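It is worth pausing here to work through a concrete case rather than discussing structure prediction in the abstract. The textbook approach is simple: state the sequence, then state the predicted structure, then interpret. We follow exactly that order.
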Amino acid sequence: MLTPSTRLRLQDIIGRIADSQPISLNERIYVQKFANRDASVWSWLRRAQRQQRRGEPETDLERFMTQMDLVEPSDPSGFDPSRDDLGDWFSGAPTWLKRS
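Step two, the predicted structure:
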């Protein structure tokens, strides 16, 4: 569980990531440490990175998909069962998502 001050600090850093503002390496490490352990922080970071790449959603569908934290089917980094191994695909997942 995050303390209110930690949550606010994380959201500030993640907000700057979404707005393509500079962040320090220490801030990035700080956010990643929590993202590896907490699904909410991981989701916030993922949304911020998506917003950084694509900008603000323009349509209602894009806004809905952003709010639901859904990846578009045209996302090139998605799993392709014909060429990807499922175990390898999840190897970069946060520790809370991996199975032993």
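Step three, interpretation. Helices lie at 4-18, 25-35, 39-54, 60-67, 86-89. The mean pLDDT is 80.
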